[in-house]
Amino acid sequence: MRIGGPDVHDPTEKETQTHDQLGSAAAAGRTLPLPPDPAERGRRFGHRVGHDRRHRGGRGLRDRRRRDEDRDQQERPARRLRLEARRQRLRPLRRDESGVSAVEFAFVAPALIFLIFFAIQGALFFYGRSVAIQSAREGVSQLRLAQDEATYLDIRAGVKANTEQFATSVGREALIDPLATPAYDAEQGRVRMKVHGRVISLIPMLDLTVTEEAEGPVERFEGAR
């Protein structure tokens, strides 16, 4: 449609032409394809554009990663040299720790050795104490045979010697210089034996002594009636 000037597009004219074409095609028995839907064209075009963008973005990401890897491969020797140079600069500032283990052992070893000797010394002390107790009991078992004070005076020296010999033979060197002291109580009818001695010492200038005592009633024998 022309209105006194340049051509102006009139949508009504285009629709009229389309209807005329459809009418003539229907009269001739032919079917014309429908014009494409603008919305459908937009979706197709947008899908293609998005696909192209994603495809181009994937290639760009792979290319960027490849470039980064190549750059790392090229810069790795230089980075290693920089790290080595930094270590060389910091090396004089570090403390020299050579010989630290020996110094630590020099401080710890005396305490450890002292603990070991202390444990052994404690075991020897308790062993000497046990020997003294057993010797005193052995002496009491012999003194109980004294029915009266006269009998006690007769067997006193022999029991004392036997007790000291027993302590020496059983204790070996755990109980040094054992000394047995017997006693008799006529009023209560009881006997007593005291054993005194020194315990072997592993620590210089350490004198350990033990004194143990045992007692018991005098045995009485009555004649048969």
From TrEMBL:
TadE-like domain residues: 99-140
Chain ranges passing through the membrane: 105-127
Domain of life of the source: Bacteria
Annotated Pfam families: TadE
Name of the protein in its database record: Pilus assembly protein
Biased composition, class Basic and acidic residues, residue ranges: 7-18, 66-79
Keyword hit for Transmembrane: yes
Residue ranges, annotated region (Disordered): 1-79
Biased composition regions of type Basic residues, renumbered to the chain: 44-65
Alphabetically ordered keywords of this record: Membrane, Transmembrane, Transmembrane helix
